[in-house]
Amino acid sequence: MRGTVWAVANQLGVVATTPAELQSALLSGPPRGPVRLAPLGHDPEKLGELARILGEFGHGRIVLESSGAQAPGPEPAPPPPPDPHPGDPAALCAADPLKVTAAFEADEDDRGGLRTAWLRAGQALVREQEPADRALVLLAALPPDAPAVLRAALGALAAAADWSVADRWEAPGPVVALADFAGRLLVADQSGTVHGLDERRPVSVPTAARIRALAALPDATLLILDERGRLRTRGPGSALTRAVAATLEVHPGTALAVGGGAIAVGDRTGSVHAFGPAGLDQAALHVGRVTALGAAGPVVFSGGADGAVRCWRPGRPGRTGRTAGGEDLAERGHAVVALHAAITGRGPAVAVAWADGLAELYGPGPGPSPGFRPGPAVRAVAATRSGELVVATDEALVMLRPH
Asked: CA-to-CA distance for 164 and 371, rounded, in angstroms?
């Protein structure tokens, strides 16, 4: 069932491992018509069972493309597939991923961490892709105690992929936000604690707040946007931070970033507000909620529930676009869930994550880098000053370097 849920979630553009998670993702997204499930080569019996379960959850019409019938009963099961060498990384990366998933579900031997990695990253692994790309996803998902020989084998298999794994950390708790402070990566977890990933200068700051977004000012003031959209600070603070905090008490924010001496805040109506020493500047950049913000110098990058990523320089009009004041950077049919920007030696870089589990890096250079899907939902992303992409899930953070 797990492999079937992953394949169906990929069809529908959501992230889910169980029927309940799939149902929750469907209900929390935009309104849909009938959910159509295409077989795509997986077990018709399991697909029929999933359709029945979703129907029981009350989703509405569930249609199987193969027959056009609504939530049909089980069909005869096909012969069981062979177990495809679960201890051989090369065989796993080249085999039918749904058969590999079934083999790992039937055998609890962890195979040095291969089983853990596969079941953690499975939604990305069941997609059509080259063996090298599958090896990269497995390498990024390996538990920290995996044997060095296994890491080396997957690294060799992933050599032809578009990325290499530059670093990896187990998450201190389910990650909700990332921020950069003077080149140091800060991680906020679901408990409201902010952690530094620099082992030479460990830091752990409890905030007594459920954190929605995180940013840092050059004077070492930590800015926290809490779940109610209010601003909290840790550190020196200033007249500017106090003014922003007072404004958000009345008009809660949905996203936060710092750049060019200004504090940028997004709201539920699609507008971005830049609070700076010279006053307030604002622009309507999205249709619906602003879900994420980043800044590289004076340029603000915003992501929205409308699936658009836009760039805007406060105080300077942009070229004519759908909405005055901003320029289009990217747009997909999925909400933006996280965004971060940094200035590299070759220009600005923008990391973006989408609700369907895709993470991308825009710049430096023309167009986006090839996307990366870790498998689980992406909770936060960051672009580093040296041009890497950091992707955070509930369980881990991985730093990827484009080849």
From this structure: 13
- Return the SS3 of 391: strand
337-375 confidence digits (pLDDT tens)? 999 999 998 889 999 999 999 999 998 766 678 899 999
Closest CA to 101 of 116, 81, 87, 122: 122
Strands 35-37 and 62-64: parallel
d(CA 391, CA 351): 9
Q: Which residue has the tokens 């459920």?
A: 210
Those residues whose C-beta lies under 8 Å from the C-beta of residue 65, and which sit 6 or more positions away, are 36, 37, 38, 39
pTM across the whole model? 0.88
d(CA 322, CA 328): 8
Structural tokens at position 46: 């399991």
CB count within 10 Å of CB 332 equals: 16
Extract the tokens encoding 283. Answer: 């622009």
Whose CA is closest to 160, among 187, 142, 186, 133? 133
Strand pairing report for 396-402 and 389-392? antiparallel
Spans of the chain below 70 pLDDT: 31-44, 53, 55-82, 84-86, 199-202, 316-325, 365-367
DSSP 360-379: EEE-SSSSBPPPB--SSPP-
Which tokens hold the place of 342?
């940094």
- Cβ-based neighbours of 275, under 8 Å, separated by 6 or more: 240, 243, 244, 247, 262, 263, 264, 265
Instruction: Report how far apart, in Å, the C-alpha atoms of 227 and of each of 106, 156, 208, 301, 388 are.
Output: 41, 43, 11, 21, 29
Question: What is the rounded distance in angstroms from the CA atom of residue 223 to the CA atom of residue 220?
Answer: 9
CA distance 161 to 155: 10
Rg (CA), the chain: 22
Cβ(335)–Cβ(296) below 8 Å: no
Q: Report the distance separating Cα 392 and Cα 172, nearest Å.
A: 11
pLDDT at 61: 63
